[in-house]
């Protein structure tokens, strides 16, 4: 009987170790901070605890994408006055976790680890601007990105 309890305790400890601690600050990084990273930032604000600092940025600057506003409003979220910004424009660079959404962003984040102590996770995310077709087909591509990010956020940060 004692061996079974020890095995159960060991298995529980392994599961607990596998669960990553909640970071105090998270940066979502993509190519231009116009689609993927601002979506992830707003979704994370709904999913993560209120005390977690959340921001987004791009490797280079871009123009705000109105399709993002449409698909976020469908879920009751808004980017508000969000304006695309680069890493250089951030007020704070002391993040516990940087989640990169594009290869270019991942490369830049890995360069940061040379002089900053931070964790980097790569979440490859499709570029919805690559989809052509009708307005609805293009919006479907943006919805797919939004839904994939939300699913990934829940899987990564769920506390249950």
UniProtKB/TrEMBL annotation:
BP GO terms, sorted: response to arsenic-containing substance
Domain of life, source organism: Bacteria
UniProt KW keywords: Arsenical resistance
Matching InterPro entries: Ptyr_pPase (IPR023485), Ptyr_pPase_sf (IPR036196)
Gene3D superfamilies the UniProt entry points to: 3.40.50.2300
SUPFAM superfamilies registered for this protein in UniProt: Phosphotyrosine protein phosphatases I
Pfam family, one: LMWPc
Ranges where the Phosphotyrosine protein phosphatase I domain occurs: 24-159
Protein name: Protein-tyrosine-phosphatase
């Amino acid at each position: 009987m004692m061996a079974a309890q020890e095995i159960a305790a060991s298995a529980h400890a392994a599961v607990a170790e596998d669960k990553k601690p909640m970071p105090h600050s998270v940066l979502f990084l993509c190519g231009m901070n116009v689609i993927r990273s601002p979506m992830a930032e707003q979704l994370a604000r709904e999913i993560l605890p209120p005390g977690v600092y959340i921001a987004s940025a791009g490797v280079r600057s871009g123009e705000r994408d109105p399709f993002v506003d449409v698909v976020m409003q469908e879920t009751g979220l808004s980017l508000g006055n969000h304006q695309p910004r680069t890493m250089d424009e951030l007020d704070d660079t002391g993040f516990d976790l940087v989640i990169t959404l594009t290869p270019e962003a991942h490369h830049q984040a890995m360069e940061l680890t040379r002089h900053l102590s931070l964790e980097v996770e790569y979440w490859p995310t499709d570029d919805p601007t690559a989809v052509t077709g009708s307005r609805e087909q293009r919006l479907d591509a943006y919805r797919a990105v939004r839904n994939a990010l939300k699913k990934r956020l829940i899987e990564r940060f769920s506390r249950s």
